[in-house]
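notes to self, project folder thing:

trying the whole complex as one job this time. last attempt i did each chain seperately and stitching them together was a nightmare. two parts in total, labels are on each line so i dont mix them up again. if this works i'll redo the older ones the same way
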Amino acid sequence: MSAVSTKRVLLHVGTPKTGTSYFQEVLFRNRALLAKSGILYPAERFDAHFLAALDLMRMPWGGLEQEAVGAWDALAEQVRAWDGTAIISHEILATASRPQVERALASLGLGDGTEIHLVLSVRDLARQIPAEWQENIKHRRTFKYARYLEQIMDPDRTSRAASWFWGVQELPDILDRWGSDLPPSHVHLVTVPRKGAKSNLLWERFSEVFGLGGIDLDLDVERSNPSMGAAETALLRRINLLANKVLDPVDYRPLVRELLAHQTLSQRSGSPRLTLPPAVHTWATELATSWVEDLEKREYDVVGDLGDLLPGPPFKHFADPDKPALSQVNNAAIDVISALLVENARLRQTAEDRSSELSEARAALSATFRAKVRETAVRRLDKTVTGQRALNAYRRSRHQRDDLP
Amino acid sequence: MTGDDGVTRAWAWVDHLRTGGTTPWASWSSTGIVRHENHGSGPRDHDLRDGLSRLPGAQQLELLRRLNEAGTVVPALAEQVLAAAPPGRGQPALRLPGVGVTEYGARPVDPADVPADELLRVAAGVLAEHLVSQPPPHPKRRRRLPGRLPWHRAYQVSGNPLRTDAVRAEMTARGRRPGGRNPVVLLLGGTPDRMVADTYAWRILHTATASWRWWIAHRAGFDELPPRANVAAAARHWRSEVDADRIRIVLDDDALPELLGVPALEGPPSPPAEALELIRHVNQVLRVLVDRERHQALLDHDLVPLLAGAEGGRLVVPYAQRRWLKAQARRAYDELTGAGYAVVGDPARLIAEPERDGVIAPADAEVLALAVRTLLRAHSGGQDGHASGGWGDPDRMEASKR
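result (full assembly):
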């Protein structure tokens, strides 16, 4: 897809855990450079498209939704006003319902001469299912892995976890909801390469489909959504069981998800990866095979290989996060305690710094206030003869006092 | 039945529901297509695939059928329900059994079997969208209230927030704003379970979205009473502002008029549990639709008045938190009686056993029934009115903000 030719929108609607955080951070960091190349990434803040998605789907998200009021319409207005290519990207859009999709596409100019392209980045189920359970745990959930697998494999899909999982991961259904009003050539599937592929292959695929080749983008960004091992996820689930009772969502996000999960537990190495139990792996492979057969018939533009959606062979040893090795959990817990101590020390230092600054500010204010009082008194005394005499007497006494040895 | 037949039958049912029909899907056999002026959004002449993909979900269809059962549904409401995108997390649009064949998505569901919480999700979304679509009220010319006269007693009220708001509103309307020099401070207390339940109700009436069970468990997890339900903490605060002998712990509502020097005061508002739960669900949608100020205005002027006549049981403390609450109440009792504050009423109320008769978790079916009645009332232009002077009387709510 070339970068600029007509007024067009590239709408990336998922799926989660396909490198979306990294992709969005690159676009956000480089938005000025992109604009010079005729590509709009309309975002004043990193999570602007996330907020727009919350608004579109009327989705509560631990209080963040209050910052999302009107965000979709504002985003769509910027896109409509842009003469060139605009990119919108957020993975939770995958779960939008049909009426929400219709509203979104209409607001972006479908039918008004704007060329809308749908992009869906996709990864095999054997990696997506454990990753989605882990995401659930990072969002305060407490169900065990086995229970989660039962819920998503239940054909009725009545649980909230199953509704969400299939809403963002059932590729043919997502494409039915989002792609029905678009020609197949305007629907692009970006497959996440299999494990062991060269490290920048996924970026190359994103770059190709979004027409970013030839733009000298800064790709050295920090933000990503790293994964935890089986023991670390098991530990976090146990922390949730207690923390949920005492932590508000607004505190959970920075303390548990950011500090513990992303900055501490995700940085550990050595504990076994989260994988699928062998029986579930077989089931996932069969399901993926049927999806691939269906998708091959749809004539979409595939960037990568639909074969990437077929799970690789199962791991020889399945590390069950419901029965983790206690030594591994203990080691992870010690890292967590250490991280909390360091954070606590940092906060104490910050509080002390603020306290000192406050004292200095109070002293400065007080001095200013005393000077102001003196100035006002002198000005008033100076207006009358009696006052001038009193002032002179005061000054003489000050002078004599200052002359004292 | 072929796929074509199923889709045609489904669209005929949509038309049936649009015109006030109440036949359940399982009993619906007609494939006759009824055409109507003005509301023909259904793709009657479209191809099968399009007709299937644009068919409203089982949730929307069943909600419309239940609205038809409950009263007269105006066309605008019917269209709003059929086009509704259920807000937030939950089931996707559920398909009707026997209509088309697709391999993906959740299993088709007989609309009669759609859980009440899913119907409630749609109803709350439709209600929120309706509230937001109403033009904001013209700013009322503010009535000039009489000022305080020299012989009026200076006072402050604090404590139970529902009661406090009501007292402030009524006193302000009488020209007796709180404040003044050396006021008497009336701390409105009560039984511990009523204090926490009323505090929760007050929060829901002020845009909060936490469920009662979560909220009370959360407070217990912190092991402290919510500030607005904590009379001992309020007394501590006021002790630093006024002399201790100016503070009264008021546990007898009947004594309030005399303490304030007025002939009578209305009783405290007492929102039923189902009404609070419906407001909570609507709050979840309004939080992402409008800013906080508009949200509060929509509650005060539109939603709460619509629910003012609602009846039902009151919230009671779940069994799991009763022991915690009793311990907290005992601590507050010891502090208040030990400090020697004047108590108006029976101090034993401070440590009364929590009530057991009431609602711990409002049933989704009951809340849904209330949502259905409220939607019909909202779209009737409020012609059946609301119980003026009830717990949601807008004049009282308005005055309490001044």
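what i see at first glance: The mean pLDDT of chain A is 92.
need to look closer tmrw
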